[in-house]
Protein: Magnesium-dependent phosphatase
Amino acid sequence: MGDDRVKEEALRMLGLFQVLPKLVVFDLDYTLWPFYCECRSKREMPSLYPHAKGILYALKDKGIDVAIASRSPTPDIAKTFLDKLGIQSMFVAKEIFSSWTHKTEHLQRIHRRTGIPFKSMLFFDDEDRNIEAVSKMGVTSILVDDGVNLEELRSGLRNYASNSASSNAKQSD
Structure:
């Protein structure tokens, strides 16, 4: 499925939900692309997972901001790859730094930069420990198996809508 078809399908899917996140945060390695940055050279031409670009463009078209939270120890390579892929400017925040905090520090920085509350964020990552830690912050978090794809997006939107409904129900008690 090409980028345009993925984008169309993602836009159709986004249209099915009444409640959407204000910000979607992605990990890089094994979430947006199928490799670890530190194992690659800046001279290489990187590639994204097949659905990643179409999903990013659909989110932007829908007015949903996107950000990066990566614990890569080689932020220079990651940023070079984002440039080469022509997607660097899409992200409202790029928190790419090595850390032992399981992405909580990354998400706190994104929150400070954007002002978007944690409960209004959706996060995709390939590591259990990051999903667990970030979920405790109130962020709807989705574990991806083999990169972000339309199925993972649908799952994320469903969980986000469900979490929003339950947090609204608690507020009206």
Q: What stands out?
A: DSSP finds six helices and five strands in the chain. The CA atoms of residues 36 and 135 lie 24 Å apart. The chain has a mean pLDDT of 94. The longest strand covers residues 65-70.
